[in-house]
Specification:
- This protein is α+β, with helices and mostly antiparallel strands.
- It has a domain at 49-115: Nucleic acid-binding proteins (OB fold (Dihydrolipoamide Acetyltransferase, E2P), Beta Barrel), CATH 2.40.50.140.
- The protein has helices at 2-24, 83-87, and strands at residues 49-59, 64-69, 74-80, 96-104, 107-115.
- Strands 1-2-3-5-4 form a five-stranded mixed β-barrel.
- A hairpin with a 4-residue loop joins strand 2 and strand 3 (74-80).
- The longest helix is centred in the N-terminal third of the chain and has 23 residues, at 2-24.
- The relative contact order is 0.15.
Amino acid sequence: MQKTTTWLATTLIALTLVGPAIAAAPPTTSGTPAPEPSKGAAPKTMRTRHLAAEIVSVDQGGRTVTVKHGRNAKETTFAVEGDAAARLADLKPGDHVRIGYVDNQGQMTAKTITNRSHTARH
């Protein structure tokens, strides 16, 4: 009985001393600590947002499109790239579209533009 009590006491003392050291150690996966995030760094991937809007104007040379949207008919100009740039020639004022875009610190960039004029509204 005394042997069991001694073993139990020794184990509890060891865990008391080692436990906080284990809890304080940062987890690592490859033996090297993870790099610390830098303040002010832009995220590596930006979330694509979508907006239903009406075309106000299209500038094929400048690769921009201006749309109005929302209850107050707010106008927003998007830089256009990728698949959206190929669609500029097909767009005209008054077309209803859905724009897939990213907001990079206030610079709106359209990635996709889908014409919604053919969609029936109920």
